[in-house]
């Protein structure tokens, strides 16, 4: 019976039996060391050849249920198959948020919200844009390769110009250079980290396309691939979450349900969901009900089938349907809410998490800027 810690196995060719302790003492450390080394090499090769995804999160308001299903969950899922990086785009938010306390609190709340929703800072890189000074050096460099005509075509800028024209105002009224050059700063965010893909909605791919155009302009000028050309990862099957009024849930419509609402506030908001005038006894179509649509996001298959049958049978009023919706929503959101409150109770720890992520990010950013500075002759 062995007592030396050697592993138990027998082979008809290997004389293990009585000599197992001696063999293990001689060769065991070598076997263990080799196994660890091979594991590290395989892990390095795996991460080295993983494609890189980059997700920017603008802290301009309170996270809501639509954000959770439409942006947060799909973005976090990328970490399963990509070398994923996530950043809080606080300088982007400065274009619309000019109050210092609001910008800081929004930044903390959004960071806490993503962490509470499942982002693991030990498995991905998670940082604040403002903590990466290389972003702004690269922005200055990219400006020299970006035509004004390209920026004139940016959707956000064109929307402001169009609104001004409709009011017979100066086309550029209310336009600051932060808004106008927004695509260049976004290009720097993307290109700085050698991003392969940037997850976007179907109507948000333009900025990634602009980043690709700018990268190609730089590469063409210096006849080498200095910057990786990114692609938009268009999320075509992201759930569209109905708001309180039946329209798509959006801050601009004022119809959102905050993701971390208190239980009391959550109940109050759900009871405000707009419904039609069908009575209690009338059969109802679950597929055309926004209450049921939201219910399917939180309930299991069996619960969905039971509620759908009750809709079609009749005898259930909208008030009862809303109470059932509240039950499943609150069941899902309660642990997220508790985690969010726990994180927000210690913002110093939260800032430490972001600072540690920034340290990891800057290792990559410094190398990119060093490579670009050398190529363009600024050494």
Kindly summarize this structure in a few lines.
The chain has 379 residues and is mostly helical.
Can you tell me about this structure?
- The longest helix has 30 residues, at 347-376.
- The N and C termini lie far apart (67 Å).
- The protein is mainly α and 379 residues long.
- It is globular, with a radius of gyration of 27 Å.
- It has helices at 20-48, 65-77, 90-93, 100-116, 134-143, 148-152, 155-166, 177-180, 182-191, 206-222, 263-270, 290-298, 301-313, 318-344, 347-376, and strands spanning 52-57, 83-88, 125-128, 197-200, 231-234.
- Helix 5 (134-143) crosses helix 9 (182-191) and helix 9 packs across helix 10.
- The chain contains 15 helices and five strands.
- The strands form two sheets. Strands 1-2-3 form a three-stranded parallel beta sheet. Strands 4-5 form a two-stranded parallel ribbon.
Secondary-structure map with pairings?
Layout: H1 20-48, E1 52-57, H2 65-77, E2 83-88, H3 90-93, H4 100-116, E3 125-128, H5 134-143, H6 148-152, H7 155-166, H8 177-180, H9 182-191, E4 197-200, H10 206-222, E5 231-234, H11 263-270, H12 290-298, H13 301-313, H14 318-344, H15 347-376
Global outline: globular
Side-by-side strand order of the widest sheet: 1-2-3
Order of helices and strands: HEHEHHEHHHHHEHEHHHHH
* Percent range of helical residues: 40-55%
